[in-house]
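During the no-cost extension, the postdoctoral fellow (Dr. R.K.) reprocessed legacy sequence entries with the updated structure-token encoder. One reprocessed record is reproduced below for audit purposes.
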Amino acid sequence: MEPLLRDVRYAVRVLRKRPAFTILALLCLGLGIGASAAIFSVLDQALLRPLPFTESGRLMAVTSRVDGEGGGSVSGPDFVDWRAQSKTMELAAWDDHTVSVSHATGAERLPMAWVSANLLHVLRASPLLGRGFGAEEEQPGHSRVVLLSYALWQREFGGDRGVIGKTMRLDAREHTIVGVMPPTFDFPVGTSERAQLWLPLTLAGDSTFAQSRGSHSLAVVGRLRAGATRDQAAAEMVAITRRLSELYPRTNARFSAAVQPLRERLVGEVRPTLLMLAGAVGFVLLIACANVGNLMLARASGRYKEIAVRAALGAGRGRIVRQLLAECLVLALVGGALGLLLASWGTSLLQTLLPPSLPHASDIGVDWRVASFALALSLATGVLFGLAPALAAARADLNSTLKDSTRGSTGAGSGQRVRSAFVVVQIALSVMLVTGAGLLATSLARLERVDAGIAPRGAITARVRLPDAKYEENARVLDFYGRLVERLRAVPGVTSVGAVLVLPLSGSNAVVGLRLEGRPVAPGHEDGVAFNTVYGDYFHAIGMRLVAGRAFDEHDDTTGVPVAIVNEAFAKKYWPGESPLGKRISVTVNDGKMRQVVGVVADVRRDRLDEAAVPEVFAPERELPFSGMNVVVRTTGDGSAVAGTLRREVAALDQDVAVGSVQPMEEVLASSLAQRRFSALVLGLFAAVALLLAATGIYGVMTSMVTQRTRELAVRVALGAAPADVLGLVLRHGMLLTVLGIAAGVGGALALARLLSGLLYGVGGGDPLTLALVSLLLGAVALFASWLPARRATRVDPLLALQAE
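Re-encoded structure tokens follow.
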């Protein structure tokens, strides 16, 4: 232990004597380790850390599949049959939503979830206070009960342990509090807002969830029973769904089921992005290590005489290597501490950039796991960048080094070759990173120019859901929305007001079966088509263009002929080259009545900007009312003022109705690109760091070369070489390294682009313009980094240089 402490103390003294070298090395290491630790904190939270449930690896997501394509939700009746028939899994279901919570001063909307009574048992979770739900509470007419989150319990009841048995008014109905969940309980995981309340699903009688096998809204989680495997569970679910399709061909003929680990389901969309960033930060760390390795080699070349003297006094090669490695490890550990400081800042920045679909994004930060990772990484990098210089120094020729009192080392040539190789690697990795960042940035720019089919500027949206307890009758629903629209139209600056069931680019969806008049189809084999209902002047409020026919008006209600409006994608698919006006269709809602097409609207990107518009049918809300709608207000004035007015007008109509998700339509559009913007920004940041480190590496190598070749350059000048000749000599060497690095990097970038193809839009992986611009950028950076030491070489005074020799 004492020899190790002596090595450490000596290393600290040596590093303190060379502050410029030490500071530069620490900055390189701090950047590399800090970036790695910050990204690890994201990966750990999303991919590595187990979900906060007992034996979470046995939890499976069970989804429906239609014609072989999966990821869908499940109907209430199907779930009841799945749960009863499954022998390999315990199954539970939920549907995340929002609920209106009434207070003395008004109402607010909070995220909540309807859950099957056995959910807590499946998750192996227990309330902190009170109890969970009983099986009888899935039955209609049972007393209304609610579970509270720990955060809501603290906020609303101040942590009162006597809260059990008290009531809360939710969606205009009194609910009895039966339990409080612990602070660690978070379900559904993976949602942008954590649920604050849980209510029992009613899976029998005439409830919304029990009515139709064709109404899919539930998500299902299963826990593998003892001895069961995922493959066995998947095979069983296929068999169950096959039996149901035979019993209910009208609704289940095309359906099957898929089973996958719950974590895999939660991070499915963001997993490629996270793995891409993990690879990118690995490149940055390698570049940082190469840079510090270069610095260590340059420093070692100036210490060959010192090392030779120590060897002459009896120090063995192992002792010398151990001492030099001790210096590297001291540097690495201090750099790791600096990296942790940078990571704590970086994780705060990442939280503002992370897409909302990432599970537990708000929990990301520097904890003991991240600190342990940084420590291990520091030790590994210390050995990685320190081993080559230490071995090179230990192999130096003792006799020749002691004889040569004027030159740094007889090993300078081999050291310079190693340093040049490091620079080539740095440039190649930088080319790959900058190319990836350029492709993602180009892809994002093209997506932002995609015509979404709407005019988001000036449009404000808000989610309004009417409580069923007070709005069971369609007439009351229509009366509320009618009065709300009239009130909002009277607000100064408002030009149009409407409402829609599913907002464009919101990530929500509603798909129904379709039949066309004159084209018979077997029950259960109808085409799936996107469905929406609209109220008021929605098309103008959202900025959708009417292509043909007319919009809905006040006469399109239950007393007239059922009508529909379709989009251009629908018309092109089902009536190519024909006018859809006057054609008749039916959808599997509202008893499948035949509807006459009265208008055609331009296509709107319903789910994502990078997906083509899908066929969509619009029905009038006056004929087919829904209690939950998205209100859209177009204004010429300040949108924030209209948002406040909207809340006040809703409260004036009914104190039990709360407004949720008030935001400009421009924010909805921007949030649909959040994941791509996150990828482009973070990879761009890493590319900038890589460029800086590569430029530093080139500058260091060229400076070292000029220093080592001072006598040669002096001789050339003394023999008549012009400054331009010396400048060209140095620049040619720097640009040779750059060309080699760019050539290797372009090959790597082409391979990397293939891996990024799933994250790109409108740009090929081998985009020649991006590759050319990146090559020019790296060439310019390298030229500048080489020019600085080259200019110094032209100022060598041959008389002084040769006198020193």
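The chain has 24 helices and 23 strands. The first strand starts at residue 59 and ends at 66. The remaining legacy entries will be reprocessed before the final report is submitted.
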